[in-house]
Amino acid sequence: MPDFTVPIRDELRDDYRVFYVTAWGYAADHLFGWFPKALNCHRDIFALLAHEGSRPKYLRERTRGERPPLVPFTEFLNDMGMTYSAIGDCYSYRAGQMPELLSIDRYKNIPVVNLVRHPVAWLEFYVRWRASNMRMRVGATDPLEWEWKTACHAYFEYLGLPSYSKDDIDIWASYQGMFQLNNVLGDIHAVQRHIAVEKIADEPETFKDLATYLTRGEVTFDQQSMDCAYSMRHTLFRGESPVECDPDRLMQAWPGWKVDAFRKLVSQKAMDAYASFGYDLKELARRPVNMAPIPGKIPRPVFVSSLPKSGTWLLREMLEMATGLKAHEPRIGEGSPDYENEMLIEFPSGTFFSWHSTLTSRSASLLRGCQAKNIFLIRNIYDVLLSMFAHLSRDVDAAIGRSVIGSGYFVGKTTEQCLTLMISGFTSPQMTWMGAGPLLKQLDSMLELVESGEALLLDYEQLVCNKRETLKKILHALECKLPTERVKEIVALTEKDAMRERLKISGHGQHVTLPEHILQRSVFLPYHKEMIDHAVMINAPRLPERLHALKLDSILRLEAEAKPESKWSQLKSRWLD
Predict the structure, then answer these.
(1) How far apart are alpha carbons 127 and 504 in whole angstroms?
(2) Do the first three CATH levels of 18-248 and 309-576 match, i.e. the same topology?
(3) How far apart are CA 557 and CA 363, in angstroms?
(4) Where are the domains of the chain?
(5) How far is CA 460 from CA 323, 368, 377, 555, in A?
(6) Three-class secondary structure of residue 55 per DSSP
(7) Regarding the domain delimited by 309-576, which CATH topology (the fold level of the hierarchy) does it fall under?
(8) What is the pLDDT along the chain (577 residues), one digit of tens a residue?
(9) Residues in a beta bridge with 21
(10) What CATH architecture does domain 18-248 belong to?
(11) Are 42 and 19 in contact (CB under 8 A)?
(12) Count of CB atoms within 10 A of residue 324's CB?
């Protein structure tokens, strides 16, 4: 009689069979593609190729700049590879992300190897990958669009590199790839083992020793498995085509602009790091003498997000005068603006981005990718609602061609009823207002980046009552210097009367709420505060805690303060460090 006994596995033992191979991208480089296939020639190894790096191209669960948290992903891999002696991911993560995992005692023995490639060959594949639309189908351009948005265009312009358009992928992708080559400096101390992929491909014994290390001695390649692995060494895989990847021949074919850009964008320390891996950069290692930053240019893009009715126009005026850049906001089509859509964020040359964006993990990733300088502007939530009520009920945006159409909805309603609707939200045949919830969510999303030290936070009272100090903070955050006289001039030009006069001349005079239409917080009733508290609990439960940590409890306070600007003397400039 057959034995149907099924062996029971001990699922809970911390016997991790996981390994990681890190690198700065796969980009269809044959050697990077060959290595996991070679590992898979052994029946007890399961090696994934950029598994979690490919998912964002097709699934909007996160951006191309994000990866799943390492701890749960490691547990997932361990469970997935239960029937293998070893399972690992190749290239989804960067070496600099590994200390997060290896610092935890139960994961400290997980093998990690960082593969490096000659920077000139790596750059060739990096650019080709983007120029070929990253293996996406015709018409699908989101991944390439993301690459364009996260490129450091402001820095390239600041350095005076030759200009380009969005279609010049070979130029801007070259610049961005060169800039990325500096990341080697963060990798060196993040993990202990760094190996040139060319060395692995050329030396079977190196490959064999590395496989033993990655599997913690559980797997040894026999000759048959080695023959299988190296039989693919010079064979193009499905979808691959011949690519010139000899560094010497590539360097000889580079035009002058590319050589100059490499010398300007790749630091001497990074070049020294590549030399330590045995790579010879020849003439590229000679430092430039003819390139310098363009005077007056700001090296990083400027991103501004403000709560509605918090002083957006005033902040824009100050920034335009201080930087010489013009404010840019996305075009709003029909329907409600999608303030969470990170793909609406862009930085055309000569502009800074300014809108009422709600920050998500995707938009935060985009801003980190392009190394943006972030400025957030907030205001007391009750003052925002009062000002927004005056704004909507009087259709203030009609003056700039953005009539809300439906301001008559408030006619015949008491102030108490109108404020209740402003907090809860409403939909009429002509107008929809989502209430306080989205405002609180936007505010909370800003503070999350402020907590991590990635943004300068400004308050309406600070902006209006202390322009000079506010402007100094902005200039410090942007690494921009202005003469004292110019600072005084900007302060004078942005006083209320001067602002209104300029807005009238530009045809935007009525975009400002007139003094006689301004309501005070005293019109709110106690139950309105309870509605706001409920909206906070539903939309931004951590908001009170975050505000308290920043000594900004007044943002959710209903009672008016005698001297709202006084709290700013207590506020540290922690966002500027």
Answers:
(1) 49
(2) yes
(3) 29
(4) 18-248, 309-576
(5) 21, 26, 7, 10
(6) helix
(7) Rossmann fold (3.40.50)
(8) 555 565 555 554 557 899 999 999 888 899 999 999 999 999 999 999 987 777 777 777 777 677 889 999 999 999 999 899 999 999 999 999 999 999 999 999 999 999 999 999 999 999 998 888 766 665 667 788 989 999 999 999 999 999 999 999 999 999 999 999 999 999 999 999 999 999 999 999 999 999 999 999 999 999 999 999 999 999 888 878 888 999 999 999 999 999 999 999 999 999 999 999 999 999 898 776 566 777 778 999 999 999 999 999 999 999 999 999 999 999 877 667 899 999 999 999 999 999 999 999 999 999 999 999 999 999 999 999 999 998 888 866 555 555 566 678 899 999 999 999 999 999 988 888 999 999 999 999 999 999 999 999 999 999 999 999 999 999 999 999 899 999 999 999 998 777 777 666 665 555 555 566 678 999 999 999 999 999 999 999 999 999 999 999 999 999 876 544 444 344 333 333 3
(9) 90, 113
(10) 3-Layer(aba) Sandwich (3.40)
(11) no
(12) 12
Which phi and psi (to 5°) does residue 457 adopt?
A: -105, 130
- Give the up-direction half-sphere exposure of residue 314: CA atoms within 13 A in the CB hemisphere: 29
* Cα-to-chain-centroid distance, residue 75: 26
Two tokens, residue 150: 């996260």
pTM: 0.84
Using CA atoms, how far apart are residues 539 and 436, in angstroms rounded to an integer?
Answer: 9
Amino acid in the structure at residue 425: G
Look up tokens 């100090």; give the residue: 469
The residues near 411 (Cβ < 8 Å, ≥ 6 apart) are none
Is residue 17 within 8 Å of residue 86, measured between CB atoms?
yes
70-77 contact pairs (CB < 8 A, 24+): 70/97, 70/98, 70/100, 70/101, 71/100, 71/101, 71/104, 71/107, 74/16, 74/18, 74/101, 74/107, 74/110, 77/18
